[in-house]
Amino acid sequence: MKSVQIFKKYLFSNPIIQVRASTTTSPRKSLNRIFPHIYTVADGQHDYTQTDATQEQVEMLAKFIDEGKGKLLILTGAGISTESGIPDYRTPTLQGKQINPITHTEFVNNTFSRRQYWARSFIGYTRLATRIPNQAHHTFSFLDQKNYIVGHITQNVDGLLQTAGCSNVLEIHGTILRVRCCNCNKTQNRKHFQETLEKINSSWVGVTFRDKNRDKPDGDFDLPPEYAESFTVPSCSSCGEKGVLKPDVVLMGGAVHPEIAEKANQFINDCSRVLVVGSTCATWSAYRLIKLAKELQKPISLLTIGKTRADNDLSIPKVEAKIGPTLTRVKSL
Fold first, then answer.
1. 2 — alpha (psi -120 to 50), left (phi > 0) or beta?
2. For position 6, what pLDDT does the model report?
């Protein structure tokens, strides 16, 4: 009870927070007023003024895609979703900004760290759930419909490719839109879990932050650790107290499920070429797939911003330009 009182005192005294009373207004309209930036490209965290692709680069990408029609594989990273207002870990304009995601070991073994995560996610998910597909997602959906693409491998957990209408999407890092019990393996929709969290954390309902720079990648949120003391995390409804509920994603230090890894290998084997978009290829889960494609002598091309792990090792042709506008220009050719 004391921790709840402390939390409420913090809410009403902290200048960066607003507490809204419950209304009958629809959730989306309420969120529009609370977060007026949610449908804009820039949200204060990213610089979207990078150089546009040259006409030659656009034509090169169009030719690469056209030559792979029917068997083109798209491998995407967080860079395709930054233009939807979702932060990533490696945007050049964020270099020097400390982002320390929770590790798999810490989440599973530390009860308070787990509570911290879900407290942050309680706010972060609300903001993530309002994000919508951008030009890049819609271009891939268009290419899907025109039968250019054989499949998608994505490192992203936001589900925006599917929202845009893309099919045959393999999420190698899982999805933030689902929650899984580490004990009995039962899953539930993240939206449903959010409703459960609201019921048992009523003092948190209606809490919003004015500071746009608190959003973190993957639906996480910058919240000081002490504020999680008042947050309650439910146990698994199937196996009880021994069930640890975790977002159905590969956390830092975790491993891609063997079946998913094998399916990704099969995607590489079945395609004729690979277009890598919005990825720095820094994680082994993505880099190994590019290495495999290279070993199988599949043509590879990169569209991203900033340095990548493949720049020196694999010598892959790269276009460094704004992703959404570039792909839109490619589609128009």
1. alpha
2. 38
**pLDDT per residue as tens digits for the range 187-226:** 999 999 999 999 999 999 887 766 666 788 878 888 888 8
Task: Scan for tokens 């507490």, then name that residue.
Answer: 19
What is the rounded distance in angstroms from the CA atom of residue 213 to the CA atom of residue 218? 14
SS3 assignment, position 247: strand
- Phi/psi of residue 283, nearest 5 degrees: -80, 145
pLDDT in tens, 63-75: 999 999 999 999 9
Strand 300-304 and strand 318-320: the pairing is parallel
* Residue found under tokens 């939390």: 7
CA-CA distance, 170 to 261, in Å (whole number)?
Answer: 10
For residue 293, the SS3 value is: helix
**The model's pTM:** 0.82
In 69-190, DSSP assigns E strands to 72-76, 149-154, 169-171, 174-181, 187-189
How many CA atoms within 13 Å lie on the side-chain side of 263? 15
Q: Which residues are catalytic?
A: 173
Q: What angle do CA 107, 129, 103 make, to 5 degrees?
A: 15
> CB-hemisphere CA count at 13 Å for 286?
27
CA nearest to 117, candidates 159, 168, 179: 179
pLDDT tens for 77-113 read 999 999 999 988 765 444 445 567 889 999 999 999 9
Task: Please say whether the beta carbons of 251 and 275 come within 8 A.
Answer: no
